[in-house]
Amino acid sequence: MAFNLSWFPFYPKDFLADERVKLMDHAQVGAYIILLCHQWNEGSIPADRHELSRLLRVLPEEFDKLWDRLEPCFVKHLTDKKRLLNIRLDAERCNAANISKFRQESGRRGGLAKAAHRLHVVADS
Predict the structure, then answer these.
(1) CA dist., res. 41 & res. 38, Å (int)
(2) Which residues make Cβ contacts (< 8 Å) with residue 93, sequence separation at least 6?
(3) Angle between the 26-42 and 87-124 helix axes, to the nearest 10 degrees?
(4) pTM (2 decimals)?
(5) Which of 23, 55, 105, 124 has its CA 20 to 30 A from that of 98?
(6) Distance of CA 106 to the CA centre of its chain
(7) Measured between alpha carbons, how far is 91 from 83 in angstroms, rounded to an integer?
């Protein structure tokens, strides 16, 4: 998606109520948030375990302990089998992209209307 947002909606009540999150230890919760941030920026995360361990800055044996709880939070990307997605975050990202596109288009239309009005005022002078 061709949009850039430096933030994403985070719903603490939903996050903390999710059983998968409740069963994570502190390290797993931190790793999960890092992966969500990476997905928000990139659109998805790598499916490769070595790349994921590097993203999380942990050794492969440490990664295995984290991934047991994190893996159920992600699904295979529909079109790129080398990537994974968190479905909820992907939906939020698509929604944010649609809102961003709508606002850009509204701003463009407003700017065109303003310019047309100025031309009309100048022509009448």
Answers:
(1) 5
(2) 1, 8, 39, 40, 43
(3) 40
(4) 0.79
(5) 55
(6) 23
(7) 16
The DSSP output letter for 6 is S
Identify residue 31 by its one-letter amino acid code. Answer: A
Give the pLDDT mean for 114-124.
69
Residue 20 CA to residue 24 CA, distance in Å, equals: 7
Cα end-to-end span (Å), the chain: 45
Q: Where are the alpha helices (DSSP H) in the chain?
A: 12-17, 19-22, 26-42, 49-55, 60-70, 87-124
Whole-number Å distance between alpha carbons of 54 and 45: 12
pLDDT tens per residue across span 32-66: 999 999 999 999 999 999 999 999 999 999 999 99
Over the chain, what is the mean pLDDT?
88
